[in-house]
Specification:
Blueprint lengths: L4 E6 L2 H12 L3 E5 L2 E4 L6 E6 L12 E4 L3 H10 L3 E2 L9 E4 L5 E5 L21
Parallel strand pairs: 1-4, 5-8
Antiparallel strand pairs: 2-3, 3-4, 6-7, 7-8
């Protein structure tokens, strides 16, 4: 048994699929009913399911997107309609939100330290 797909509930699956398609470099591969799918890459597939209610509260599950240059990835996310969530800055992670507010982290591809309280160190002193 394995995880085949990760599905993100959203109000506007076309918009969210477009955002993630551009960010991940995975084209939109299909549409079925209330779903929009990205082309399958390494790892699980990613799909977006239309739901009527907007996101509320903090995600219980989130993506970690790897980048060797978190600052440029932050700028790219913002160009695509996402934003940084400064309320998490004290934890040392670069936490972003997609256009519907779903949180995700931008992390380096190489290992990094996390202290006993869960704070990271990869952004350095001024953050990304």
């Amino acid at each position: 048994m394995g995880i085949r797909d990760v599905i993100v509930d959203c109000v506007d699956p076309e918009r969210l699929a477009s955002f993630w398609s551009e960010l991940l470099g995975r084209p939109v591969a299909g549409r079925t009913g209330p779903y929009v799918w990205l082309a399958r890459g390494a790892g699980p597939g990613v799909g977006f399911q239309k739901v009527s209610e907007p996101k509320s509260g903090k995600n219980r599950v989130h993506f970690d997107v790897s980048s060797s240059d978190p600052a440029s990835t932050r700028a790219r996310v913002e160009e695509l309609g996402g934003r940084r969530l400064d309320r998490y800055a004290a934890g040392g992670f670069l936490v972003m939100a997609d256009p519907e507010g779903n949180e995700f982290c931008v992390i380096p591809p190489e290992p990094f330290e996390v202290d006993d309280d869960g704070r990271a160190d990869y952004l350095g002193e001024g953050g990304a």
